[in-house]
Amino acid sequence: MNIAIPLFKDRVSPHFSTAPEMLIVLVEKNKVYFVSRLNIAQLSGPERRKKIVSLGVDTILCGGIDGVSKEWFRLKGISVIENIMGDAMDALNDFLEREKNKGVIKKGVAEDNIKET
């Protein structure tokens, strides 16, 4: 999984289009194995979008994002998770924890919901 997080200093940028930097995180088996900060301050909206695609990003964690960019990423198969706030590494860790727990059935919960017919 390749994740992009638009940054303002060490925090998730309030909006994709105004982020001066982008954190690129490569994750395998829910473990971070590469992190890089890219300066994107001089890139236009279309240039930012193309850069993210060229880096093989499949998930964007961001504060806000314009509808055109969000739809463009959707059409490219890139998942956009918006309304993320706070420290970028905390947001990343929270996201990875949620991903790790997706689809996990806690012992006993499934059995309690089975009804005999």
User: Major sheet, described briefly?
Assistant: 6 strands, mixed
Runs in which pLDDT lies below 50 for 5 or more consecutive residues are: 104-117
- Report strand %: 25-35%
What's the domain count? 1
Q: Report the end-to-end length measured between terminal Cα atoms.
A: 42 Å
Net shape: globular
| Average pLDDT score | 87
Radius of gyration: 17 Å
Which class best fits the helix and strand makeup? alpha/beta
What is the CATH class? Alpha Beta
Structure report:
With 117 residues, the protein is an alpha/beta fold. It has a single domain, classed as Nucleotidyltransferase, domain 5. The chain is 32% helix and 27% strand. The protein has four helices and six strands; from the N terminus they run ββββαβαβαα. The protein has helices at 45-54, 67-75, 88-101, 109-112; strands at residues 2-8, 11-12, 21-28, 31-39, 59-61, 79-81. Strands 1, 2, 3, 4, 5 and 6 form a six-stranded mixed β-sheet that branches. A hairpin with a 2-residue loop joins β1 and β2. The longest helix is centred in the last third of the chain and has 14 residues, at 88-101. The protein starts with a strand and ends in a 5-residue tail after the last helix. Mean pLDDT is 87; it is low at 104-117.
